[in-house]
Amino acid sequence: AAHIVQDAGRRGRDERRVRLRRWRASAMDQGRDPCPYRILDDVGGAFAMGAGGGSIYHAVRGWRNSPAGERMRGVTTAVKARAPVLGGNFAVWGLLFASFDCSFAAVRRKEDPWNSIAAGAATGGVLSARLGLRAMTKNALVGGALLALIEGGSIYITQKLTQASNEQMNKTRAAPPPVTSTLNGTGAWLDTANMVDASRASFDVNAAAADVYTDNAYKDNLRA
User: Fold this and answer.
1) Burial of 43 by CB count in 10 Å (0-12 exposed, 13-18 middle, 19+ buried)?
2) Mean pLDDT score across all residues of the chain
3) What integer pLDDT is reported at residue 29 of this predicted model?
4) Which residues, 6 or more positions from 181, have their beta carbon under 8 angstroms from its beta carbon?
5) How far apart are the C-alpha atoms of 75 and 80, rounded to whole Å?
6) Measured at the alpha carbon of residue 88, what is the angle toward residues 83 and 94, in degrees to the nearest 5?
7) Which of 197, 223, 191 is nearest to 212 (CA)?
8) DSSP string computed for 134-197
9) Is 82's pLDDT higher than 70?
10) Which of 17-31, 36-50, 87-101, 182-196 has the lowest mean pLDDT?
């Protein structure tokens, strides 16, 4: 009985390891860092975004609110005082969002947009927890809706770019080279304008596209 229990436990651990490897592989396939490295990446990116944007915003404010002759000092003071604060706020949001995203992915064992949408809703609710249940619910809905729009837009743009890339590849496919052969020891050229396929439909391989079955003239011959 003890051996049976040990074997069952060993199989369970092996299955969990396999599921964990598949989950990490799916994250890498989507071009994202695996957890928990994703948390550090999101925190750093969010801080850089907040600090950079805050520097521009507070530089403009410091310039406008400073008297003549003191504008550069006002810009420097405003950026030093407020830009890191905004960067820290962004970093807190990134930390919560990435933590929830990794948690949902670990629980569901799946990488899809629903993790990001749920993480956005949870982040909005946690950040407004001090304002009461009503504010938490409102901000959770807003956060989930914003992430749904972002994920939906990302999927739409990716599909459009992929479709445009495929269409461009089909348009730029090179035509096949002229067909030659040696007949009875002579270097005679084949008459490619009178070639036929198994259905006895004629086509010109040199005038057709790379795939002769997409050539309009060939299609017309098949209809006829």
Assistant:
1) buried
2) 76
3) 47
4) 188, 190
5) 9
6) 130
7) 197
8) HHHHHHHHHHHHHHHHHHHHHHHHHHHHHHHHHHHHHHTPPPPPPPB--BTTB-PBP-GGGEE-
9) yes
10) 182-196
